[in-house]
Predict the 3D structure of the following.
Amino acid sequence: MSSSTVPSTSLAPRARRRPAGEVVLGVDTHRDAHVAAVLSLMGTVLATDEFPATAAGYRDLLKWARKLGVVGRAGVEGTGSFGASLSRYLLDQGVDVFDVNRMDRADRRRRGKSDPLDAQNAARAVLSGRARARGKSGDGPVQIARTYKLAKGSVVKARTQAVNQLKAVLITADPALREELAQLGNAELFRICARFARVSGHEEDGE
């Protein structure tokens, strides 16, 4: 064989190189795993796959997508819930993330539930411009406000449960005590019942 002849086997590595064109990533997010789809700019589905919702899974997802092209944009469902961590990772890697609403329920019933289809639709929402809301990094004022709201909601719920439990206990109390306490507001009722608890504790310690 002459030195100018190139063996056919040397072409194989070139065929496996990453395409130079841009692609769009779409992700249907869940608690334990995410389903991803990669589309060309013409809307052709290049590949779909599933990845665990873990740090290693996020890395594998983006590495897999980048083998199919340049990933500059991604449509992610639930960037404020199941997709929050993935969105932060993609943003850190220089990918523009767009928040995608889940498919209309009527459309889901008509087409049937399909995670790959949802992932493809997430990418199509970016391609068509329907997805305009940018994914948040999760460390700004909006995230702080969301965290505060969640904490406040939890505290209010716990307080309501405590009030209901205390009043349920008072139903079986001595009638005279029950009638006296029934006239009090919740704050004063808590203070008096707390004193009862301290007195009861001192008496048990003295026994």
